[in-house]
From TrEMBL:
Name of this protein: GMC family oxidoreductase
Flavoprotein keyword on record: yes
Keywords: FAD, Flavoprotein, Oxidoreductase
Similarity annotation: Belongs to the GMC oxidoreductase family.
Domain Glucose-methanol-choline oxidoreductase N-terminal, first and last residues per copy: 210-309
Keyword Ribosomal protein annotated: no
Location of the Glucose-methanol-choline oxidoreductase C-terminal domain: 459-515
Organism of this sequence: Roseomonas haemaphysalidis
Superkingdom as given in the UniProt entry: Bacteria
Cofactor or coenzyme needed: FAD
Amino acid sequence: MIQERYDVVIVGSGPGGGTMAWKLAQSGKRILLIERGDYLKRERENWDTRAVFAEGRYQAPETWASSSGDHFHPGLHYFVGGNSKVYGAALFRLRQEDFGAVRHPNGVSPEWPVKYDTFEPYYQAAEELFQVRGQRGEDPTEPPAPRGYAHPPIRHEPRIQQLADDLAGEGLHPFHLPIGGLMEQDETGAATPHSPLLRCDPFDGYPSLTNGKADAQIICVDPALKQHPNLTLLRKAYVERLLTDPAGRTVTGVETVVDGQRHVIQGDLVVVACGALSSALLFLRSATDAHPDGLANRSGQVGRNYMRHNNATVLAISRAPNPTEFQKTLGLNDFYHAHDRSPANPHDFPLGHIQMVGKSDGTQIEAEGLPSFLQWLPEKPFGWIAEHSIDFWLTSEDLPRQENRIFYRDGQVHLDLTPTNMQAHHLLRETLRQICDKTDIHPHLFNRTLYLGKNTPIGGTAHQSGTLVFGEDPAASVLDLDCKAHGIDNLYVTDASFFPSIGAVNPTLTIIANALRVADVIAGRWA
C-alpha cells in the first residue's frame, strides 16, 4: 500500500538513489524508494551474448530522436539497481586534477566548485560499501588516499599478466583495475567454491546471473530493505512529474503512475536519481507557472551540458591464444594527463584512459558484422578470432556544451549531441595500436560497436552526466553545492546530473560518493 506521506521520497534505485536509500534508511525515518522497473529476472539469457547485445533484451524499449532527425534506442535499463545491473563495475575515483580546469584541444574542461579533499572520505566509504577490489600505488595518476582498498585486487590470468609485464617492459605503468566484482579468490587466484563472482566471460555489460556484481540492488537496496522496515520499495512505478506549491519553492507531491492509476505521494524531502538524462526530463515535465521552463530552470541549464565520454571498445588479435576467462583486470593511465603530468604522452593535452573489457566470444564477433575484419582474415572462423582476441576499452573526456542537451519537442524526447575532443580520442587509439605492436599483439584494432550500443555515440548513454550542473550561481547552474535545486527548499539530486565535467574514468564511484555526501547534508537538516 502506498502511504500518503513519507519523510523522504527517492526517485530511482541506481547507484545514486540506491546508495541514498541505504544511508537514509539507517536514520529510522520513513523512506520510499520508487523504481520505474522491476527486479531484473535471473534467467539463462543473462549470460546469452546474442540476447544481451544483439537483441538488447534488457534495454529500455524507448525511441528517441537526434538532432539529425534519426531515431534510436537509448542505452537505458529500468530495473531495481538501474544501469548498474549491466555496468562494467570499474569503480574509479576522479583524478585530483579532474576537479580543476583542464585544457583540451577543443576547449577547457571546467573546474569543480567542490574539490577532491571534500570528496575523499566519501570515496573511501564508497569503495568500502561497494567492496571494491584494487591495489593502491600502481596507478601513477591515482589521487591521494590515506587508506588502501579493503579487498585485494582480482588477479590477472596468465595472458593478461604477460601483457602487464610487456607493458612494464616498455616503461609503462599497468595496474590492477578497481573492480566492484564480488570475487573471493584462493591462493592461486581461482574463485573459491562459494564466491559470488566466477572467473567467466559474462560480466562486462551482462547482468550477473550469480549476483556477483557489486550493483546498487545487491549492495544497497536489498540489504537495506532486509535490515530497515522503515524503507519501502515501490516497483513498476513511473514518476510523471513533481508538484510544487504555488510559489514554486517546495515540492508538495510526486505524481506517480502505478498499474495505470495516478497517485500523488508526499515527501518532506524528495531526492531525484533517475540518471542524468531521465532526471532532466523529469524536471522539464514538472514545469509550472512558477517554473515555466521546468523546475529549477531559471538558468536555462536544465537538460544542457550533457556528457557521456568518448568511449570505444576495440578488439585486437593476440599472436598467442588468449584463454583468459575474466579479462577485465588491467588498466593503463600513462596517457591520462598532458605531457607534464604523464611523460609517456608526447602531447600537451590529455588523451585518456585504457582498460581491459570483457572478452569477445564468437557470437559477438559474428554479430558485429565487420566486413574489413573478414577481408583481412578471410579464412578464419569467428571462434578462432575469439580465441585470440584481446579487448580494450578506451575513454577520453568530452566537454560540456550548451548545445548538447536533452529536451522535449512535441512530446518526443530529443537528444542533441555534437562530439567534442575527438582529436585526443583518435590519438589514444593510435597510441594503443602502437603499444600492441610492441607487445605480441597484432596492431590492427577493430571496433566492437555492439558493446556500446548501435548508433554510438548518440545511443551510448552508459556514462550519462551533466544535465543539472551544480554551482554557486543560480543564474548559471541548476543545483547548489549540496546538490539541492536552486530556489526549491526540499529537492535534491544524486545521480551524475550535477557533474560540471566528467574526467576520463567511469563516473559511478563519484555518484556513490556524492550520494553519501548529500545524505550527510540531509541528516544535518534533521539534526
